[in-house]
Amino acid sequence: MVYPYISTSADLLKSTVRLDELFPFLKEQGTASVAIVNTKMYGILPFWEACSRAGIHGVIGFSTCIEFEELTLPIVLYAKTNEGYSNLLKISSALATRDKKAIPEQWLKAYKNGLICVVPNKIEWVMTDRTPAFRYVKSIFGGDCFGSVERPGGEKSPEETAFLQTCQAAEMSIIATQESRYMKEQDAFAFEVASAIGQGLKLNDPQRERPVHTKAYVPAAEELRAWFSDQPEWLEETARMLENCQVTIPMNRQLLPVFPLAESVDRSQYIAELCKKGLEERIPNYSSDYQNRLDYELSVIGKMGYIDYFLIVTDFMKFARDNEILTGPGRGSSASSLVAFSLRITDVDPLEHGLLFERFLNPERVTLPDIDIDFADYRRHEVVEYVARKYGEARTAQIITFGTLSAKAVARDTARVFGFEAEELDAISKMIPNRPGTTLKSALKESPHLNNWIVEKEERKTWFKTAIKLEGLPRHASTHAAGVILSPSPLVDHVPIEKGNEGIYITQWPMQDLEAVGLLKMDFLGLRNLTLLEHIRRLMLFDKKVRIDYRKLPLTDPETFSLLAHGDTTGVFQLESDGMRRALKEIRPTAFGDIVAVNALFRPGPMEFIHLYAKRKHRKEKVVYVHPILEPILKETHGVIVYQEQIMQIAAAMAGFSYGEADLLRRAVSKKKREILDEERLHFVRGALSKGFPESAATAVYDLIVRFADYGFPKSHAVAYSMISYQLAYMKTHYAVYFYAALLSTNTGNAEKIKALLQEIKEKKIPLLPPSVQKSTGSFTVENGKIRIGLSSVKGVPATAIKALLSARKEGAFSSMFNIAERISAIHFTRKAFEPLIKAGALDDFELDRGILLASLDSAVKHAELVKPDEEPGLFDDMGTSFMKPKYAQASPIPDNLKLDFEKDVLGFYLSPHPIESEKEKRNKPYADLNGVKNRRDKELVTVLGLVEDIKRIRTKKGDAMAFVTLQDETGPASLTLFPAEYAKYNALLEPHAMLEVHGVIENRNQQSAIICKSIHL
Fold first, then answer.
1. Which is it for strands 173-177 and 145-150: parallel, antiparallel or unpaired?
2. Which of 372-381, 450-459, 853-862 is the least confident region?
């Protein structure tokens, strides 16, 4: 049995055939050959590997169209030979990179070798006499050109006879086929829904492209034979044709890119000289330990063929440095390489931190090295573009990644296609959790409410059954966030590509497929924390004319350790969470190594050792070693195995393993497979005995390794990332005002985060200046040791208006609101743009009350329309505006409470001093913050001071009066409940804007917190 046309689910929403369902069925049918036929080269490798596992002959096909005269005609191309497969990659890539739907004649002639062309009996080929088109393909492909007849469900098409006659006239043999797009006949409806999702149209939309028939399933062998029982030779011809397709996809090659150097240059010598020069710059007069380590690493890198790889990374890191793009100190195991440090790929000295090269590159286990690089996220694309320019766009690509239909996505997409109302879509969103790993079945089990909702209507039952069938299918393609592929020759020789964004191609295969064929993936990662460091540096340069070099900060600063020991880590990379703050307070770091250890330990599993580490560090518990040989290795972590490198060092010291063998042991032991553990135990004990250790000691140490194998963390990664943590903590300690200004800028738009940061800034007594049309830039800046709020922080102001304002200000300060109006034009000077700016205090520089500015805004807008309606030179530009200066309107001052409300509306926080703040200072009593009520314990007694914002009076079932009140202080609002007894006592005090001191009890109910009033004082 053979199946010449299986479209798989990898062809986004054009099929619902999953490989895990397809292959058991094919084996059952005694399949000899099967062909994948998708409209792109998606899903080729997984299909190929599934064929290999099932022992079925695999064939690669491609569904496409050709141009002939004015026509676009569908065909299927099959790869007959390796050259044909290579040509398919090129054709698919050419169509996808040039947005073409059909193959022009010159392409078809150029890439015909090794391909079989099949003309299907589709309507486009039989509408009128297409004899010239048949002759055209026959003239190109000769004997490798076939006509194919499909009889879905055993039904002959009315045009079959005419089609056969034309094929005969063109001397084309006939094969039997069945275009399969779903597994079973009953899947036709689910497939139609998937197709509608792909088209973005509802099922009842007249524009929707509908399937030609509902029999595009994978038929059983007997069925297919029955459909062609009158022409069994067609099926035999199909089998022969597929059998003739003999392709091998080369796997696991080392397709390493080549760094451009003159042929006369000896690469080994070149990299050695670069390393020597770089190391001398970083560590003048370095010791012989460094020279020996460098020689050893270079010999391994040379033997393994990775010199070009290191040179490529060195080159683009130099580009980043030359262009002041901040790069991370290292990431992952590459930080353990002295070569990487010497070439300035990393900033971690591996000898200083006791890092092992074999953790990165193990000469005893040949795998491609992985040098991942972090860049300030907003400039990462510049480095990717540089690489594409240098190595050529044909050899550089970003990597595709496929998004699948998750439970919530498939439920909503299917419902949308069914035409469900908006409130039904909302209900679905609420009933299906967002949690990773949620499936529709698990959501149904979890929620009786969902179950009841589904059974209410027949349509909903169909919806749910359909959604379950489609769940998990690939839905769309996007670009991998970090991965970049560099190839030694044009990418289309190895993988299909398509159009990407930013002018760089993307591969049609995802990461694991690319690695399987042997292409090198490099990760260019955007890290927000580097952007934050970059921003701090820029603010300092702008304000103090001082440029900070993060690489030169001393790693021994006692004040920085003190800040960390107090858990004051808002905005500090990796150390912000509540759990991490607790760990820091417990450990109380006094050295850089403590930060590295806490970063490595703070994960599920090893977390329990944080207490042990802290106790031993503070000498509350004695450090005991299973064997004295462990002391020099584990001393830095107080006897706790924290790092994978420590496991490797133990194996080397006790059992005489080379570091390469020790790395293999570490990998093997972490898999926890019984037979591997026993094998490695023998190996370890044998080694220890040969070094003169007793068996009991060797066994005890091996047991320790097994216990900690899961907990071990790569020290190289922990050291590199702890450097970023430390740098941020250092800047927060010594340059807090720049640190917070940068942190506020990078969190613009996140109201919750900004609110929390402003609260912290207030506590640190850092003054905050309002936004200003005269002094603010777009983002937060520093002015005389104070933070100035940026104009972009004001809600509702168009970015174009801010840009126009800043551009006009370059010509000089503004003299009045009307002066702004006439300088930036009526296009930008609108009520929408300037009302929020006035409310935020951005025009306070003109020393007028905000009430007057708001009252005068309309005449300022009219003034702009008259004097400068657009950005063209205005009629009155040369005349000066003295003859028509409008006047500010008269208006009474804005009351303080309204001023605060306006600030809250447009900034998200109160900027002017809140009346409650000054009252608290006057009363000099401790009050609980209203914003913190939600974090307090149930039944806890509190005293708060707040303004009444809202009062809701109701009656209980018994008819007694009570009230719910919203109180507000400088930190935010909280709910206050007065039950009837308290209401009767204090009702007269409940007035809008009244200032009340309330004694009450916290009540936490249904994830809501409120204060139950006990007494009120004015």
1. parallel
2. 450-459
Interatomic CA distance for residues 641 and 165, integer angstroms:
79
Cα(164)–Cα(176) distance, rounded to whole angstroms? 12
Cβ atoms 990, 963 nearer than 8 A: yes
Judge contact between 965 and 998, C-beta under 8 A.
no
DSSP string, 746-806: HTTT-HHHHHHHHHHHHHTT--EEPP-TTT--SS-EEETTEEEPPGGGSTT--HHHHHHHH
Backbone angles phi and psi of 48, in degrees to 5: -60, -45
Please name which of 640, 729, 642, 656 lies closest in space to residue 689, comparing C-alpha atoms. Answer: 656
Average per-residue pLDDT for the chain: 92
Q: What distance in Å separates the CA atoms of residue 1011 and residue 999, rounded to the nearest whole number?
A: 9
Six token digits for residue 834: 């300037």
Query: What whole-number distance in Å separates Cα of residue 301 and Cα of residue 275?
Result: 13
Overall average pLDDT of the 767-781 stretch? 94
Q: What is the mean pLDDT of residues 541-550?
A: 91
Beta strands in 488-645 (DSSP E): 497-498, 506-507, 520-527
The DSSP 8-state label assigned to residue 405 in this structure reads -
| Cα 521 to the center of its chain, rounded Å | 17
Q: Is the pLDDT score of 879 beyond 70?
A: no
SS (H, E, C) 446-505: HCHHHHHHHHCCHHHHHHHHHHHHHCCCEEEEEEEEEEEEECCCCHHHCCCEECCCCCCC
Distance CA 460, CA 445 (A): 17
Q: What contacts 28, CB < 8 A, 6 or more positions away?
A: none
How many other CB atoms are found less than 10 A from the CB of residue 440?
22
Closest by CA to 311, choosing from 335, 291, 282, 339, is 339
pLDDT score recorded for residue 430:
85
Structure tokens at 588: 């109380």
d(C-alpha 225, C-alpha 239), whole Å: 12
- Is the pLDDT assigned to residue 604 strictly greater than 90? no
At 886-921, the pLDDT tens digits run 889 999 999 888 898 899 889 888 888 888 888 998
pLDDT of residue 876: 54
